[in-house]
Automatic annotation (TrEMBL):
InterPro entries: MFS, MFS_dom, MFS_Efflux_Transporters, MFS_trans_sf. It is a multi-pass membrane protein. The lineage of its organism: Bacteria, Pseudomonadati, Pseudomonadota, Betaproteobacteria, Rhodocyclales. This is MFS transporter. The keyword Coiled coil does not apply. Gene3D superfamilies: MFS general substrate transporter like domains (1.20.1250.20). The chain crosses the membrane at residues 30-53, 65-84, 96-115, 121-140, 152-178, 184-202, 231-251, 263-282, 294-312, 318-340, 352-376, 382-401. Keywords: Cell membrane, Membrane, Transmembrane, Transmembrane helix. It is found in: Cell membrane. PANTHER family: CHLORAMPHENICOL EFFLUX PUMP RV0191, PURINE EFFLUX PUMP PBUE. Residues 28-407 form the Major facilitator superfamily (MFS) profile domain. Coiled coil: none annotated.
Amino acid sequence: MSRTSPMSATPAADTPESDRMSALEWRVGGSLAAIFGLRMLGLFLVLPVFSVFASGLPGGDNFQLVSLAFGAFMLVQAFLYLPFGLASDRFGRKPVIVFGLLLFAAGSVMAAWAPTIYWMIAARAVQGMGAVSAAVTALASDLTREQHRTKIMAMIGSTIGLAFSLSLVVSPLLYAWIGMRGMFLAIALLALLAIPLLLRVVPDPAHAPVQRERVPLLGVLKDTQLLRLNFGIFALHVLQTAMFLVVPHQLIERHGLALGQHWHVYLPVVLGSFVVAIPAIMQSERKGRTKQMFIASIGMLLVSQAGLWLGMESLLNVVVMLLLFFAAFNILEASLPALVSRIAPTRAKGTALGIFNTTQALGVAAGSAFGGWIAVHLGPDWINVMTVTLVFAWGLIALSMKVPARLTVKTVALGPDANIELMRERIASLPGVREVAMERERGIATLKINPERWDESRLQRLIGGEA
């Protein structure tokens, strides 16, 4: 076997202490954030005006059908996150993302054409089939170093808050200008434009995980650390959805703000939350205090929910508590998938993120269902009781969370004649090696290593000895 030096799988992988993101990482983060944002626009941009438009369709006088048409997007996504994550592990990230974007675009065109509420339900379901979140976040993880991964996830996750705030401002204006059908066509066009952005701007990872072996789904499902993180994203989105069943009504009833004026509160609060969250994320990553920041953010959520419960009469208090909520939300929305990508096995990263995104969608559904039931049967104030209790329980669970040591990913070219099984066993025994994944056809090993214990010379001697 010819001797080949190990290659860096991610930018500057051989210098893990670097505190600066590379130009490649900035490009990856910006491009994937734009692609991810298109999915969020499909959900949020139509939110303020959808019920008005859908009620004018034949059959739209049935409010339950209108609600189903809107919710079909997220409902279908919840079922497809895991299959798309599995597929990205098996066939590669980019093919799965392209397929999802094409489905999303097709559903958007179908929604623009839909002549009845029943066709609109079907169109929203087809839109929801573009469940690319797990593949996008897994690709971001493949292309970035662990010390910068939370920042990249923050760039991608920030599109949620930005898309939500932007939709509140822009959606009514677009609806008046081009109508709902024009909005759906614009969303379809943006999805199609994202495909060349993905293929030409986002590079292929050096350790692209195209697996021929069975992905360890059961092991991922049973991993107790991943279960803690999955519960966290579930709780976070139960909280977000349930909270916004109460807050808009309170702004109208207690503070006299018309619905069209709510963006005056939401937009500065969301933008201000980034001013708080981004430096906090950067400092926690630089100083290795991920768990402390994680627990502190849950504490901020607890304060925000208790503050909204006890101080809804003061508009200033509401603004401050929403600022706390969105700051904590942005930190956790970035930290959770970054931690999943660090803990998950290399060859099951997309699968783990698929499960993670499924629990996220289930959290949205559960927050809406339970929050609505509580509001009707017990009263709106009891929603705050539920959110405070849920966040407190999450905090207790998070205290036992173990943050893994920061790892570096490397690829090693072994050559086509290498004894793959023997090399897997020998490489796995080297100090600092956390995980080894083999690509038999290409003769490549992908390693997760702890740089503090890693000895490059031992790997070189091992490869030379195999020759």
